[in-house]
Amino acid sequence: MAKWGQGDPRWIVEERADGTNVNNWHWTERDATNWSKGKLRELLVGVMVENEVGSCEISDLKQVEGEASCSSRKGKLIFFYEWNIKLSWKGTVKESGAKHRGSVEIPHLSEENEVDDTEVNVSKKKGDGDSLKDLMKTAGVVKVREALEDYLKALKTEFTTGMILPTKAAPAQELTAKRKLNEHSFPDSVSSMALGAVGVKIPTVTICMRELFDIAVEELYSIFTTKELVQKFSKSIAVIEAEKGGKFQMFDGNVTGEYLELLSNTKIVMKWRCKSWPEEHYATVILNFVPVVGQTELQLNCKGVPVCKEESTRKCWEKQHFEEIKRCTVAFGNPEQLN
């Protein structure tokens, strides 16, 4: 193998701390569908236009069908998106105070066309109010296209953060500057955790889930804090130090973290991460145990999940935690019998 500084640079393995996707040569892909739906709603709903006749506002995102993704290959980003979007608008005539409603349809937003060439259709419910429809067909369409442009900019900057890892030809400081996120980038925070020594900021989301279990609060709490019970539902060796500052390790080391707070039978707060996440990046997980008649509701708040890991993290909690705990408690009848 050629050493650094020798031979064809496409085939050289750099001395990287993370050892991941050297020279950005390998194909990687992120599903941007869920992120895009949230971003389109954020940018389109609330768009307003006004003139001497009246005012109009996009009031709702009625439908957003399609998909979006971003791929990295040989250090280049490749975007795919195709959307059919339907919006509702409402308006008020200044002179009479009459209110009218209508729709905006964007039948085909895709990478095949520029936003300025994208079809945007405006319609109005039957009755008067053509002056408001005209306002939406002119100034309104301009504002909608501006929002679509903002979506594409966000897709190509915010969402792709960390996909192109820095190499010796592109220092981490330069990459971080190019990928700098503004303070309104995401509904959740942007983690400043480093990818090893790389220093790339990670866009994150918060996952909230609720699940009912047919066992008492103290029994469900013990399942999350007792080594033998964790090993039973996870079907693997576990390390559980259920005290403040104690460590935990589950699923053969694929889930690790640290307990930050434990309030018996009520609440658990922990640093939590999956092995596949960027190095040293942790989410903050809060588990609230709420008693209901004959059951316990588990309320999960997982803040700081990398955007690209949202779906897999949801499945981890749903399939590997919730479903397995229920299966075990049904099979054995009582958590105490799992020992």
From TrEMBL:
Name of the gene encoding the protein in the UniProt record: AHSA2P
InterPro entries per record: Aha1 (IPR036338), AHSA1-like_N (IPR015310), ASHA1/2-like_C (IPR013538), START-like_dom_sf (IPR023393)
Pfam families: Aha1_N, AHSA1
Name of this protein: Activator of HSP90 ATPase homolog 2, pseudogene
Molecular function per GO: ATPase activator activity; protein-folding chaperone binding
Transmembrane spans: none
Stated family: Belongs to the AHA1 family.
Superkingdom classification of source: Eukaryota
Gene Ontology biological process: protein folding
Activator of Hsp90 ATPase AHSA1-like N-terminal domain: residues covered: 29-163
GO CC terms in record: cytosol
